């Protein structure tokens, strides 16, 4: 399955220990329509691996979901750091990973661009892994 392939790639690239995908996450991925095809799946897996804290990928945020915990097992409450990371990743995704300038994530989040860059660095969010198609 492509999802497992992407988990392996991004886990190695990000020096994470994610080695498998939880069954409920696999079901969620299989049931999603994927209008953006393989590129969209790859971005969802990459973001999820970045946010993962263990060896099992146990949560994903699919495009269009209002909550990042939609595919998270009940009872799991995300930390403030996880929520901040999700929030920044969501804003970056909406802005096609543009941080600065008009229409950038800093403007969307009402933050100074240098503050956003600092938070991205603190949270381990690197733009180089999320280039839009054609870059």
TrEMBL record:
GO molecular function, one term: DNA binding
InterPro entries from the UniProt entry: AAA_lid_NorR, Homeodomain-like_sf, Sigma_54_int, Sigma_54_int_dom_CS
Sorted UniProt keywords: ATP-binding, DNA-binding, Nucleotide-binding
Pfam families, alphabetized: AAA_lid_14
GO process terms (BP): regulation of DNA-templated transcription
Domain of life the protein comes from: Bacteria
Domain Sigma-54 factor interaction: 1-50
Protein name as it appears in the record: Regulatory protein, Fis family
């Amino acid at each position: 399955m492509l999802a497992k392939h992407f988990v392996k790639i991004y886990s190695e690239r990000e020096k994470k220990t994610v080695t498998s995908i939880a069954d409920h996450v696999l079901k969620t991925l299989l049931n999603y329509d994927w209008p953006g095809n393989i590129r969209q799946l790859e971005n969802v897996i990459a973001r999820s691996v970045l946010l993962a804290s263990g060896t099992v990928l146990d949560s994903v945020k699919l495009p269009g979901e209002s909550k990042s915990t939609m595919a998270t097992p009940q009872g799991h409450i995300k930390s403030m750091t996880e929520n901040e990371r999700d929030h920044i990743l969501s804003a970056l995704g909406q802005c096609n990973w543009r941080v600065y300038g008009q229409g950038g994530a800093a403007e969307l989040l009402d933050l100074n661009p240098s503050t956003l860059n600092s938070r991205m660095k603190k949270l381990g969010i690197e733009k180089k892994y999320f280039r839009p198609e054609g870059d």
